[in-house]
Design brief:
The complex is a heterodimer of chains A (about 220) and B (about 375).
Chain A (H helix, E strand, L loop, with lengths): L1 E12 L7 E12 L3 E5 L6 H8 L7 E6 L2 E2 L5 H11 E4 L11 H6 L9 H14 L15 H13 L5 E5 L7 H16 L3 E6 L12 E6 L2 E2 L2
Parallel strand pairs in A: 3-8, 3-9, 6-7, 7-8
Antiparallel strand pairs in A: 1-2, 1-4, 4-5, 9-10
Helix pairs in contact in A: 4-5, 5-6
Chain B lengths: L3 H13 L1 H37 L4 E7 L2 E2 L4 H8 L6 E5 L1 E6 L4 E7 L7 E4 L1 H9 L5 E5 L4 E9 L5 H4 L2 E4 L1 H8 L8 E5 L6 H11 L3 E5 H16 L1 H24 L2 H11 L4 H33 L5 H6 L15 H27 L4 H5 L1
Parallel strand pairs in B: 5-9, 6-8
Antiparallel strand pairs in B: 1-2, 1-10, 1-11, 3-10, 4-5, 6-9, 7-8
Classes of the chains: A alpha/beta (about 220), B alpha+beta (about 375).
Chain lengths: ~220, ~375
Amino acid sequence: MSKIVIQNLNKLYNPNKPNAFYALKNINLSIEDGQIVILKGVSGSGKSTLLSLIGGLSKPSSGEILVNNQNIAKLPDIMSSAFRHQKIGFIFQSFNLLEGLSVYQNILAPLALTKLGKEAMHEKVNQAMQLANIEHKKDQNVGSLSGGERQRCAIARAVVMEPEIILADEPTANLDKENSFIFIEILKKFKLLHKTVIIATHDTLFDDLACIDRCVQMRDGELLE
Amino acid sequence: MLRKNFVEYAILLLFKDRNDHLFSFLIFSFIVFILSSVLFISDSLQYDLIQSIKAQPSIVVENTRAGRAYPMHEGYVYDIAQMAGVSSVEGVVDGYHYFAQKRLWFHVIGDAHLAKDEMLIGQGVQKAMAELYYEDEFHFLTEERLINVKIDKIAPKGTNIISNDAIYLNPNTARAVLGMEMDEYAKLYVTVPNPNEVGQVALKIVEIYPSAKATTQADAIGAVRHVYYYKGGIFMILYVIALVSFFILLKNQVGLVYGEKKKEIAILRSLGFCIKDIIALKLIQNSVVSVSAYLLGVALAYVYVFVFNAPYLRNIFLGSELENSISLTSVVDFNLLFLIFLFGVIPFLAFVILPAWKIAISDMSEAVKS
C-alpha cells in the first residue's frame, strides 16, 4: 500500500513577479509504507522543497500530496500542524535545536502539545534518547554538544512522537565520517521500526546501502527516475 | 483550553530567553512605577483636600472688586443670615502676608480662640521662621508698624496639607497684619443645613451681591479635582505610555522579526505547533513578563509614595515654596490602576503578538533551512 502519493505537484515561488520560478515541476511519486527513499540531486534541484511540502511546512501551488490517502496539500493550518505533529519527524541539516535548552528539554518540545502525564513524557523522551544514543548527554546544554551529538539530539526529537514518516534534509552534510556512519546505524533502526523515511542528500555515503529501498534523482525541480 | 504541558514549556522557553525579556520587564516596571506613583500622590492629596473641604461650611463667600479680593463688612453677614435656609454666617479673616526676608507668602487665618499676641503656625512656616532665628516670637512688618506676636503652638504634622504655610492669629491681629478694617472679613462661611438648598442659596447670594463669589462644597471639590486631574497628568500618562511603549514596540519588533527568534518560531512550527499555538506561547510568555512587571511597578510605587512619602515627586504636586513634610494618606484608586493595566499591558502584548503572528503565517521552509 502506498504511504505517500504525490500527483502533478508544482511549486511556484514569487508568482506574478518578474523573478517567479518553478522549484518543483509536475512531480509524480509514490512511496510505499516502510520504505527508505533517497532524493538525490545537486543544490537547487528541489529536494528540500519537496520535503517541506510532504511535511506540510509549505503549500504547493498545485497538485496533491496524499498521505494515508488524505490530501495534506489543502489542509488548514491547524490540521496540517496536527498532521506534522503526529505523523512527521523532521531532521534538518543545521539540526535546528532550541539553543539555550538541554538535550532533554529539546526532545520534550513536541510533547508540550500533548496531554501526557509527567511519567509518560519522561518515558517517551528516554526511549527517543536511547534510540538516538544520546541519553548520556540528556542534561547538557545543546550549545556545548559536538555536531554528531547535536544531530542525535535532533533525531531523538524527531522520533519522540513516534511518527510514521521521517523526513531528513541533508542529515550528514554537517557531520564527519564517523558520525555519518552513526546516522546510518540509526537509519537501520528506522527500517526495523518500519518507518517511512525520505532523505534529501547528495552524499555518496548513501549509495548502495542495503537498507535503502529506492533512490530518486532530481534536477531543476523535476524527477528523473 | 491551555494544556499544562504547553504552559510549562512556554515558561521554560521564557526562562531560556530571560535576558531578552529582562529589558522589557525593567522598562515596563519603570513606566508602571512612575504612573502609579503620580496617581497615588495625586489621589492621596485630592483625598485629603476634599476631606478638608467637607469639614468646611456649605458655602464660602468671597468678594471681589476689579477682579481682586475685596473685604466684606458686617452688612453682608446680616443680609445673608436673613436668607431662607441659612442657619448661620461666620465672618472669617483670611489673607496672605509677604515674608520679605525669605521671599515667601504665609497664609494668615483668623482664629477667635487665640489671644491677641499669640499665634499657631504650620510646620513649613516654623522652619522658615527658625532659619532667621524667629523661634519664640515673630515680627510682622506692615506699612504702618511692626506687630510682635508670640509663637504659641506648631500645628501637628498630620494637618500639613492645610496648615504647612498657615499662620493662625487672633482675628483682630490678623486684620492688622493684613491691613483690614476692624469690621471687615475676607470670607464668610455660610451654613445651610439642607444640602438640597445649598445651590439655591449660593445663587441668591450672587443675586444680592453681584461682585461676590459663592463657592459651594461641590464647586470646591470640583476645582480640586480639576487641578489634580491636570496635575495627576492624564496628558503625562498618555505621553509616557506612548513614548515608552514605542521603545518596547521597537525592541520587541526587532527581536521577533529578525534573528534567532524567527528561527525558533520556524523550528516550533516544524515540530507541529500551529499558528494559534505560537500566538498562545507568546501570549503566555509576555503576559507573565508584563503582569509581573506591572505588579512590581505598583508595589514599588506604593512603597515609594506611602512608606517613603514620595521624595522629589511630592513637591511638584504640593506646589509650595515652603518645604512640606506631610504624610501622604494611603489612598488607592483601583479604577485608575486598572486603566494603567489596560493602557500598558494590552499594547505590550499586542506589540509582541502581531509580529509573532506575522512570522508564524509565513512560509517556514526557508527559515528552517538556514
